[in-house]
What does this fold into?
Amino acid sequence: MAFALSPKSRRALISGLTFLAVGSILGGGALLAHPYYTDYRAKQSQKTLSAALETPEIKKAFERKSVPVASPVSRLLIPKLGVSTVVVEGTTKEALDAGAGHYSQTKLPGEVGNIAIAGHRTTYGKPFHNLDLLVPGDQVILETPVGPFTYEMVSPFDGHENPWVIRNDDWSVVADTAEPMLTLTTCHPKGSARQRLVARLKLIGSPPPAGSGA
It folds into this structure.
């Protein structure tokens, strides 16, 4: 025997299905709009950070090695990929909303040791979207308040191709190094945080020492 709904029940069922359909449409739209929204937010943040990077206050903080979290540390340039983004101090969510952040436990640009930078790959300006396209010989420039530092991709590195993929809980790549190096990390594969993609570079150029006359 067929089960008949009362007019009131039918109206309630139709209303419920309509609500679910509208919710699904709105949810799907929000999901599609999310990358554009985060890119817009990052673009606005970058404007503010670019101006702050030029201030005497940030230069003094950089020289003291005490840059506040979410404040600018340097501008990162990847000529091959057309990337130009201001890197902020820290890798908190707030800091990374600008696009790229400096791992606070690592060295600052130009220092002897490992400077590590994390960057978004699919949202918030996605500065490391095509990090996998770098090859040995490609260069990355860090423009800091005290001058530029140029790093070059090396290969192989510690038995790995460069760049290479690691687990998302492998923090060994941000450990200190005996030489001045630059480590770039991002999510892998694109759109997933399941793994990390890592690129390792060595310092090849920096400002002349003070008083050198160069």
